[in-house]
Design goal:
Order of helices and strands: EHEEEHEHEHHEHEHEHEHEHEHEHEHHH
Helix content: 40-55%
Number of strands: 14
Number of helices: 15
Strand content: 15-25%
Structural class: alpha/beta
Largest sheet: 8 strands, mixed
Shape: elongated
Distance between the termini: 8 Å
């Protein structure tokens, strides 16, 4: 196989030459960006944490992402074993995600140039994330003669079937692009068994080429048993009933459902107003940029003045404080490939009330670590959230189980399972080209 010669070091099982270098493609959003703003979200966390795990195992990772500022250096040594390439493709500022397909040719050119300037066989494998990167990955796979592993993160056909009010449908070009990636990739990684089923049924993926690998959580950052400490740090009173939404502010994530549920709870239990705080942590994104004041206007219309706190995007460590401080975290998304927010919150010992969609049915154990809701009726969310805000025994019982549940989603487990997929892709590619 390209880049390998007889006699090279074998992996511990003696099957294949050990992976030395991976090209990680994250075209539309950089893992160095702050999650919660713009297009940065769970995928950013996924790419960076997986890369860290691979680097800790001695595998060099080179991440390719589109430059969004003329001030970004072309190359950044982000951490030991991890290099980030900022690829100039289109205007630096003001380019929306839906405009990016027109810039893929420029992106492909610079990605391919990265190997032309090195020794032949520089990369052993390409791992692309999201459909834009997958399009680039199919070209790199052919030019470099290496296997392509692709993770969708979200899929147009699934998203279009669950559109929020005011959200735009994904274009047909994306659907065609995803179908091509499914056909050409050596292996596909699905976040959940449900996503694997969707890839097979909606995109005709070959079942033996689709593996389930759950995303993880950094249990060193997201820790339980420190609610009092976190509340002191954030200036929140000890007796506060804190309802938290964390994520990008856009219709897909349905933060409006959280506000409407809070209004429902106050209508049924006016005494709750004395200690209820609804924290909305995150920044506008996607179609949410079209109406940046929509959520604050809704808060005023619902009479939630003095109850709601809007908090700009924060670092992962401060986000962990918000999770730990919260009484309940609400994730009412219309669609989630997995739902890292739900796992991170549970790792901090906080029960989650979430929509029964996509990967959230895996991330949350219904009735054990939280509650899953069918649909997006604020009344249903209010009925599920209110007992967790007002019954400390119920909340504590779910909190303990939530921590144990989240412990099964460590990034080390994610990396081990991903490496298994890599080796399967390498093996299949070698056989096909022998």
């Amino acid at each position: 196989m390209a880049g390998w010669a007889p006699g090279e070091t074998m992996d511990p099982k003696g099957r294949l030459p050990m992976l030395q270098r991976i090209a990680m493609l994250s075209a539309h959003t950089s893992p160095l960006e702050q999650p919660g703003n713009g297009d940065a979200g769970g995928m950013n966390v996924y790419v960076l944490e997986l890369s860290r795990q691979l680097a800790s195992r001695g595998i060099e990772v080179e991440i390719f992402t589109r430059a969004t500022s003329r001030h970004q250096p072309p190359t950044v040594d982000a951490e030991p074993g991890i290099t980030v390439h900022h690829v100039a493709a289109g205007p630096f500022e003001g380019l929306e995600k839906n405009d990016l397909p027109s810039q893929l040719c420029s992106f492909v050119r610079d990605v391919l140039r990265a190997e032309v300037e090195r020794e032949p066989g520089h990369f052993d494998l390409v791992h692309s994330h999201y459909w834009l990167s997958g399009q680039v990955g199919t070209v790199a796979r052919e030019r470099w003669n290496v296997p392509l592993v692709h993770t969708m993160h979200t899929m147009a056909k699934v998203k279009n079937a669950m559109l929020a009010d005011g959200d735009a449908a994904e274009p047909i070009g994306r659907i065609y692009g995803e179908e091509e990636i499914v056909r050409l990739a050596d292996r596909l990684i699905a976040n959940t068994a449900e996503e694997r089923r969707e890839l097979i049924e909606l995109y005709a993926a070959e079942p033996d080429r689709v593996a389930v690998v759950h995303p993880g959580v950094d249990v060193k950052v997201f820790r339980a048993g420190r609610q009092d400490e976190a509340r002191r740090s954030l200036g929140i009173a000890p007796d506060t009933a804190l309802l938290l939404f964390a994520g990008r502010i856009q219709p897909l994530k349905a933060p409006d459902v959280v506000l409407k549920a809070a209004a429902e709870m106050l209508a049924l239990d006016p005494s709750l107003r004395e200690r209820l705080v609804v924290a909305i942590v995150g920044g506008p994104s996607g179609s949410g940029l079209d109406q940046p004041s929509a959520l604050t206007d809704l808060s005023d219309d619902l009479g939630l003045g003095g109850v709601v706190r809007f908090v700009p995007t924060v670092s992962q460590r401060e986000l962990a404080d918000w999770y730990a401080a919260a009484s309940v975290v609400c994730v009412p998304s219309h669609n989630e490939s997995f739902g890292l927010v739900a796992i991170e919150a549970q790792a901090c010992g906080t029960p989650v009330v979430a929509a029964h969609v996509g990967g959230l049915s895996t991330a949350v154990s219904d009735g054990v670590t939280g509650v899953l809701i069918d649909g997006h009726d604020p009344v249903d969310y209010a009925r599920a959230i209110h007992p967790l805000l007002t019954d400390p025994d119920l909340r504590e019982a779910m909190s303990q189980k939530a921590v144990r549940h989240a412990e099964g989603f460590g990034w080390d487990v994610t990396a081990d399972r991903t490496l298994t997929v890599y080796r399967e892709a390498l093996d299949a590619h070698r056989e096909a080209h022998s």
